[in-house]
């Protein structure tokens, strides 16, 4: 996989859905403490004169609020640290914009008179691999064959010409792969090329917009082209 330079600035085609969430997602420990003290004062004012609150009870309750406040501050600190990591990750992901990537898909998007790149992710050793590109009616347009292939990602280029040497029009086409180790079927994942148009960031896995190929997530990208 190719290395991508990290851009420290955030491009305009990144949609950040975190900003408002981050500003409002943390509670203020002082609010918690003030609320507790208000309740405690109300309790003291309305206590039974014949059975007043004991000093040990007051000390115990104050200790509890101090513990709760400390935990709240710790949780807020950990939360902000986690958010900072997510923000840095989003900046790194933004460097994908404008780059071509390989993602799992059983279809490719071909543009007439332009080479189309596709691939496979071979899970284990295969003595024979056959990759076919088919149209919507199941007609075979292009065939690639491999022998004694080791596990890994393989890329192929289709020039958009079918087996009859005719130029194929723009459209979506299917990929079919058969991989075997002698007589045993080998798991294989078909991959298509797509261009990263924009990024939608969030507290979860950012959504990567691939235009005609829809959307995907970072965990599904198998290869990044320079």
Question: How does the SSE layout of this entry go?
Answer:
Layout: E1 14-16, H1 19-24, H2 29-45, H3 55-94, E2 100-104, E3 107-110, E4 116-122, E5 126-134, E6 140-149, E7 152-158, E8 171-181, E9 184-185, E10 188-195, E11 198-201, E12 207-209, E13 215-217, E14 223-224
Parallel strand pairs: 1-11
Antiparallel strand pairs: 2-10, 2-14, 3-8, 4-7, 4-10, 5-6, 5-8, 8-9, 11-12, 12-13
Helix pairs in contact: 2-3
Count the E strands.
14
Mean pLDDT: 78
Which regions are unreliable across 5 or more consecutive residues at pLDDT < 50?
Answer: 1-11, 19-25
The ordered string of helix (H) and strand (E) elements is EHHHEEEEEEEEEEEEE
Strand order, largest beta sheet: 7-4-10-2-14
Helix content: 25-40%
Counted by DSSP, the helix tally is 3
Q: What integer value in Å does the Rg equal?
A: 29 Å
The main β sheet shows up as:
5 strands, antiparallel
Q: How large is the share of residues in beta strands?
A: 25-35%
* Distance, first to last CA: 9 Å
Secondary structure class reads alpha+beta
Overall, the morphology is: elongated
Summarize the structure.
By secondary structure, the protein is α+β, with helices and mostly antiparallel strands. It contains three helices and 14 strands. Helices cover 28% and strands 35% of the residues.
How would you portray this structure in words?
With 226 residues, this protein is an alpha+beta fold. 28% of the residues lie in helices and 35% in strands. The protein has 3 helices and 14 strands. The protein has helices at residues 19-24, 29-45, 55-94, and strands at residues 14-16, 100-104, 107-110, 116-122, 126-134, 140-149, 152-158, 171-181, 184-185, 188-195, 198-201, 207-209, 215-217, 223-224. The longest helix is centred in the N-terminal third of the chain and has 40 residues, at 55-94. Mean pLDDT is 78; it is low at 1-11 and 19-25. It comes from Buchnera aphidicola (Aphis aurantii).
């Amino acid at each position: 996989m190719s290395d991508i330079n990290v851009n420290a600035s955030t491009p305009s085609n990144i949609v950040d859905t975190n900003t408002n969430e981050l500003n409002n997602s943390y509670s203020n420990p002082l609010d918690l403490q003030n609320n507790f003290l208000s309740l405690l004062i109300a309790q003291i004012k309305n206590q039974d004169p014949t059975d007043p609150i004991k000093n040990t009870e007051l000390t115990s309750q104050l200790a509890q609020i101090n513990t709760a406040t400390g935990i709240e501050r710790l949780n807020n600190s950990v939360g902000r640290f986690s958010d900072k990591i997510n923000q840095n990750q989003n900046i790194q992901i933004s460097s994908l914009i404008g780059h071509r990537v390989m993602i799992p898909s059983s279809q490719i998007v071909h543009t007439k008179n332009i080479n189309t790149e596709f691939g496979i992710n071979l899970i284990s050793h295969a003595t024979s691999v056959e990759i076919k590109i088919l149209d919507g009616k199941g007609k075979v347009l292009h065939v690639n064959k491999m022998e004694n292939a080791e596990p890994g990602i393989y890329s192929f280029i289709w020039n958009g010409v079918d087996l009859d040497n005719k130029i194929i029009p723009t459209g979506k086409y299917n990929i079919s792969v058969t991989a075997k180790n002698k007589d045993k079927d080998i798991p294989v994942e078909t991959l298509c090329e797509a261009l990263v148009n924009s990024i939608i960031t969030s507290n979860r896995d950012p959504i990567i917009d691939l235009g005609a190929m829809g959307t995907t997530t970072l965990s599904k990208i198998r290869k990044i082209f320079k």
